[in-house]
Amino acid sequence: MLVVNAFASSVTARNTVVVHQILSRGNDVEIVETNRRGHATRFSQDAARRGIDVVIGFGGDGTLNEVATGVAGTDTALGALPGGSTNVFARTLGMPNDPVLAVQQLTDGINSNNIEPIGLGKVNGRYFCFHTGIGYDAAVVKEVENHGSLKRWAGHPLFIYAAVHTWASKYDRKNPHFELAFANGDRVVEGYFTVVLNTNPYTYLGNRPLDLSPAATLDRGLVAVTFRTMQATTILKSLGGALRGGGVKPTASLDVHEDVESLSITSHQPFPYQVDGDYLGETTDLQFEHVRNAVRLVRPGVAGMSPDKL
Fold first, then answer.
1. Could you report the per-residue pLDDT of 10-34, keeping only the tens digit for each?
2. DSSP string, the chain
3. Contact at 8 Å (CB) between 93 and 39?
4. Is there a contact between 298 and 54 (Cβ–Cβ < 8 Å)?
5. Alpha-carbon gap, residue 167 to 161, rounded angstroms
6. Domain limits of the chain?
7. Under CATH, which number does the domain 127-290 receive?
8. For residues 126-155, b (16+ Cβ closer than 10 Å) or e, as one string?
9. Which of 56, 260, 291, 307 could cysteine-pair with 222, CB 3.0–4.6 Å?
10. How far is CA 149 from the centre of its chain?
11. What is this structure's pTM?
């Protein structure tokens, strides 16, 4: 089953036809289109009940998250196909941002049965593929979604605008927003901004990966990176190091916990959060767990020919 989000940034009528044609070489393919949040999960759950071998999310990271949630815990495998503006998870797997090139890799993985179980994160009952952002990160995503009509045409500039605007006037940088409690008894009582990673990088700035922790892999536990301050010098220094690769280093202002199996984030006041790039509102309590072998993933094969030769 090919689950298509036709509103995603890189999805067009033409490349959807080409993707469908390539997948159909040797496979029976059912194609469906989403039209609202949660639709991809329902399609995927139905596909798993019917015993469909693979469900492919063709859209942004939010679409892929919904597909993963729908097939998790079943024998139906998950396939990723980039169709959004950033496509963090697909690129983490080594896929190109061009869906026509990526589908050739995906088809190679399907035809060679290159499928293996991977771990996912889970927060308040919802799975996530690559990260959950709490605090400032989520406030930026909310600002982007407030200008959703522009996202298809100005994805990265819109994120930069949202980050600056949120920093300047939309987020309290003087007071901590939440505290973290880990299963081993560790606590972080002054959390301003946290990212809980299932994979690395955290995101991409154009073609540059923003590496927060190389310990965040599909066969290890979660990684929690927490800023204890919102001072610009601390944030910029850490992100500069992340752009150079190798991950961020723990400091007095930056906490890093690796191989996390469970974690709680709580506050007396509501704080915002987002899951795999989808803003989910505000809450006072987040409960995280790492779920091993949560989903069977189609690993992409080798790159195919260029689109102009198809």
1. 999 999 999 999 999 999 999 999 9
2. -EEE-TTSTT--HHHHHHHHHHHTSSS---EEE--STTHHHHHHHHHHHTT-SEEEEEESHHHHHHHHHHHTTSSPEEEEEE-SSS-HHHHHTT--S-HHHHHHHHHHHHHTT-EEEEEEEEETTEEESSEEEEEHHHHHHHHHHTTHHHHTTSHHHHHHHHHHHIIIIIS--SS--EEEEETTS-EEEEESEEEEESSS-SEEETTEEE-S-TT--TTS-EEEEEES---HHHHHHHHHHHHHSS----BTTEEEEEEESEEEEEEEEEEEEEETTEEEEEEEEEEEEEEEEEEEEEPP-S----GGG-
3. no
4. yes
5. 10
6. 2-121+295-309, 127-290
7. 2.60.200.40
8. bbbbbbbbbbbbbbbbbbbeeeeeebeeeb
9. 260
10. 21
11. 0.91
Pull the structure tokens for residue 177. Answer: 């927003």
CATH 3.40.350.10 for domain 2-121+295-309, yes or no, is no
Give the Cα separation of 193 and 136 in Å (integer): 5
